[in-house]
Amino acid sequence: MSLPPFERWNRIAQALHWLIALLIVGMGVLGLTMTQMDPSMAKLKVYALHKSIGLTVLALVAARLLWRLAHRAPPPLAMPRWQRRSAQAMHAVLYLLIAAMPLSGWLYNSTANFPLQWFGWLQVPSLWHADPQLKHYAHTFHETAFWLLMALVALHAAAALKHHFVDRDATLARMLPGLPPPAGDAP
Ligand code: HEM
Ligand code: HEM
What we know:
Bound molecules: protoporphyrin IX containing FE
Order of helices and strands: HHHEEH
CATH architecture: Up-down Bundle
Number of domains: 1
CATH class: Mainly Alpha
CATH topology: Fumarate Reductase Cytochrome B subunit
Strand order of the largest sheet: 1-2
Strand content: under 5%
CATH superfamily: Transmembrane di-heme cytochromes, Chain C
Largest sheet: 2 strands, antiparallel
Number of helices: 4
């Protein structure tokens, strides 16, 4: 039996999904590595790079949310209602966290009273004045939210792989460019 026809996510949605996913994971590795470096000029440069790429991620997330609000998603595939509902809830939390990561970093930098530049080129304003207490909260949030995000991304990716290899539906194929839907032996 062949799979029913399905609609792919549009190229812009696919590109933004995978670009942001790669940048978020890369930024996490960069963040965790740079905090372990001994004080040096190189460390300062890596911190500046982390912040600039992070602000770029914030702009990409804003573009993605605007794009998403202005376009309709492909129609949902056939699956139990609880799965559709949990996927929607998961996607909403993922959107929140990918916006909260750069925002909390920016807030941390602002409350630490550090100047901020985008790739040494554009002066970025502070979100808030110097505030040691808020700085502490922003830092704790930045670190904790990252691990929460990674745990949810692992679940999200596992669900996508389960749809592809176990349920053999087009969930992953409609988001991953070039991936054909599973061979047509769906139940
Ligand atoms: C940092 C990593 C990731 C983040 C933040 C993320 C976030 C998201 C979000 C927010 C959506 C909802 C799209 C929308 O409704 O507008 C989505 C969809 C999707 N993601 Fe991810 N994702 C990540 C990584 C992955 C990985 C590694 C996989 C696969 C192995 C994956 C597979 C999918 C699929 C298949 C969809 C489409 C679901 C559908 O059509 O209902 N994602 N992702
Ligand atoms: C995609 C967005 C981002 C991700 C995924 C991310 C992730 C991380 C992670 C995992 C750490 C290590 C946490 C720790 O051990 O303290 C970190 C540290 C840090 N991040 Fe981010 N970050 C992002 C954006 C930003 C932005 C936009 C800024 C500032 C404008 C920023 C500023 C910082 C600073 C200053 C630290 C070092 C904290 C310390 O020295 O302990 N981050 N980030």
